[in-house]
Amino acid sequence: MLVDADRLHIAIQKSGRLSDVSRQLLKDAGLRLQNGRNALTARVENFPADIMFVRDDDIPTFVADGVCEFGIVGGNVLEEFRLSSSEPAIEVVAPLGQARCSLKLAAPEATVWEGSSTLEGQRIATSYPAIVTRWLAEQGVRASVVKMNGAVELAPRLRIAPFICDLVSTGATLEANGLRPVADVFDSEAVLVRTTRDLSEPKRVQGEALLSRVEGVLQTKD
Ligand code: PRT
Ligand code: ZN
């Protein structure tokens, strides 16, 4: 399918923890998608928009570049992008109250924790180096941040780092790996984002219409 320049483009996660949340929100907003689950794009039958199914990590880039005017992404991924980008042309238009989780510092059960100064001179493994680096600066602590793209909870056992900072919802994964949370670094939820780049007049109007539909959905859920 060719991408149509006159239609809005909305980036959502193809598969993962945000994909059902995102599809449900679009559905509740009255948008009917064509195409099945395996397509990379879907046309909305009854609204001038196309949906792009992508990796969640790519969503802030697409929206900031203006490739997609809207997107749905975790606040954690958005914040990491903002902190790592020189001109993040992206803004949150609606927090969605879904997919809530926290980036938490954690350490093996036996670790003695005496507040953030315990981290001085230590190593911390994380997939969110920019958020962790900012938090360390706020705490006035010097520590090295080691970027891992996955399986962060294995870092202490593999002796990559004695501390980790990873997303937690129930805490079961930390517990299963003999780790315990010691500090909250960042609280996250899914957010609807919009490009701050200038839009053509038809797209601006369509964007306002999309936003008021989403706001209507969110009000009924308050
Ligand atoms: O393939 P793609 O790159 O698109 O997806 P992904 O694998 O990078 O992301 P995905 O689908 O795992 O998560 C997408 C977003 O969901 C995250 O960026 C968060 O905003 C949000 N979210 C909410 C979570 C969790 N809850 C969560 N629990 N993301 C990850 N987790 C992990 C957690 O780190 C642990 O490993 O899920 C596991 C279970 O957590 P516990 O605490 O319940 O055991
Ligand atoms: Zn991802």
TrEMBL record:
Q: In which pathway does it act?
A: Amino-acid biosynthesis; L-histidine biosynthesis; L-histidine from 5-phospho-alpha-D-ribose 1-diphosphate: step 1/9
Question: How is this protein activated or inhibited?
Answer: Feedback inhibited by histidine.
The UniProt GO MF terms for this protein read: glycosyltransferase activity
| Keywords tagged on the record | Amino-acid biosynthesis, ATP-binding, Cytoplasm, Glycosyltransferase, Histidine biosynthesis, Magnesium, Metal-binding, Nucleotide-binding, Transferase
Reactions catalysed:
1-(5-phospho-beta-D-ribosyl)-ATP + diphosphate = 5-phospho-alpha-D-ribose 1-diphosphate + ATP
Q: Where is each ATP phosphoribosyltransferase catalytic domain found? A: 55-214
Q: Which organism is it from?
A: Sphingomonas swuensis
The cofactor(s) it depends on are: Mg(2+)
Q: Family assignment?
A: Belongs to the ATP phosphoribosyltransferase family. Long subfamily.
Which protein is depicted? ATP phosphoribosyltransferase
Q: Where does this one sit in the cell?
A: Cytoplasm
Instruction: Enumerate the transmembrane spans.
Output: none
What does the record give as the function of this protein? Catalyzes the condensation of ATP and 5-phosphoribose 1-diphosphate to form N'-(5'-phosphoribosyl)-ATP (PR-ATP). Has a crucial role in the pathway because the rate of histidine biosynthesis seems to be controlled primarily by regulation of HisG enzymatic activity.
EC?
A: 2.4.2.17
